Inverse folding.
């Protein structure tokens, strides 16, 4: 079963659920588990899984500043919410599977 990400527009609470394809909209019709408001929608991750780049791209495949450039383009394309920018920055500092300090 696919895992779908959801976000509440009332309180910004995010949560995941494993649902069948036919049931993927059910959480959008229910209240948020945190604030109980009916403002739940599927998160952007469910609709843009690859962000128009090679989804298998890793620091081991692209070394040094090239990988950081790719991460910067993903971060600055305007489609990635700011709450994910720190994780993207952390992945950009990886070099061949090791964190560069």
């Amino acid at each position: 079963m696919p895992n779908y990400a959801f976000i509440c527009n009332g309180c910004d609470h995010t949560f995941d659920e494993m649902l069948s394809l036919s049931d993927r909209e059910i959480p959008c019709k229910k209240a948020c588990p945190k604030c109980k408001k009916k403002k739940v929608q599927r998160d952007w991750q469910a609709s843009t899984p690859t962000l128009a780049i090679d989804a298998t791209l890793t620091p081991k495949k692209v070394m040094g500043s090239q990988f950081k450039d790719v991460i910067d383009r993903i971060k600055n394309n305007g489609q990635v919410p700011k709450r994910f920018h720190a994780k993207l920055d952390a992945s950009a500092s990886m070099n061949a599977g090791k964190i560069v300090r």
